[in-house]
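Long-time lurker. I teach an intro course on protein structure, and each term I like to show students one example going from raw sequence to a predicted 3D structure in token notation. This year I'd like something fresh instead of my usual example. Would anyone be willing to generate the tokens for the chain below so I can use it in lecture? Attribution to the forum is fine with me.
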Amino acid sequence: MKQARIHLGPVYVHLIITASDSPSAPPILHRKIALHLLRSEYRRDPDDPNGFTAVEQTLADFLVIAEKHQADPPRITAAADLADSGILILLRLFLKKLGLPPIEILSFSAEFDQLRSQITDLPPEYLAVLAGEARLRFIRVGHSQPEFTVTLPCGIIPLTHDFLKNDPPEPAETIALRDHLSAEFDRLQWHRLPENILSFSDAGLALARLIGGTSATCDSILTKDQLQIILPELSHNYKNQIARCPSADPDFSDYFLTTALLYEHLLDYLGREQVKIYSQSIVTQ
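-- Reply from a regular --
Happy to contribute to a lecture. Here you go:
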């Protein structure tokens, strides 16, 4: 029997169907819809109080697709960053009415294990930088196993909404965000940095594609020189102007400037000229 999974992430809701329940089984179907659950308000249409919200409708549609593919009832998971979200509480009630099991909130370590399993060329020792929508995490990996994790409250979405109020932002707003990032990075001290620095970030990958004018790939390189060129453009242009760029991902157009400033500070702090960025989306079973 085919296996189905619905995964609720901070930005995307995924449907993944595989031919078996093996962790290494490649997806035979993968669909995602950007719902920005981390920033969304859970509202019903006042003209249709019994209607579905966007996330409920997406779940209902995904359930129909899974049934048409003759898959088992889907396992429904949620990202660790959504653990405190009120959306999940309401969705539990919705799923209970459908007779489905409750949402399984993944631990951060389980999420990272799944991210690593999707990449075949990881070195045995590296520093992983997860520039997520809710938090910034540093994970030291040695002998192919995580050794420790450091977390900073520097998620791309809260940084954007706390500091960049205008479009385009006022110079004082950008300065305040730079000062905040500097203060947060100054809190960190490393005894020894691994030679390999890798980043996992959907927003970072979208920024690298915007700069490089590339189509969707599973990884990309972001350099300090690229950031120095793109930052003035992001600072002085309206978001909708940037979003019209052919290589711009509209799902992340609100966050390009914050992401660029974050990676600028990251590369300075780590003393590197570039970083390889992988997707932070879970696309396997």
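Some talking points for your students: The chain has a mean pLDDT of 89. The CA atoms of residues 186 and 263 lie 15 Å apart.
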